[in-house]
Please model this.
Amino acid sequence: MRFIQFIEFETDDIGTFSAEIERWKEESTEWRTATRATLCADRDKPGSYVHIVEFPSYEAAMANSNDPRTTEFAARMATMTGESRKFRNLDELNVSEL
Model:
C-alpha cells in the first residue's frame, strides 16, 4: 500500500527551502525511497506550505526516515521551519482520475 506524508510548515524563505529540497534530491538519487514530492503554497495563509512526499509503502518511508542522511536533511529543514512543522502520515486507500 502506498504511503503519503503531508508536512505542513511555515517559512518566510521558501526559496532557500526549495533550494535545500533540490540539493537533497541530487544527494539522495542513489538511496532515497521517496518516489514523488509536491510542494504547495497555502493561498489563504501567506508563508504557509504543505510538502507532500510519496513512498511505495510505509516500510519504504520508515527506511528513508531511519537513514542518517535523512536525519541530517531533516535537521537542516527544521532550521527553516522552526516549531511550525506538523506531520500527517497517510496510507493511500484509493486514487481516482477525474
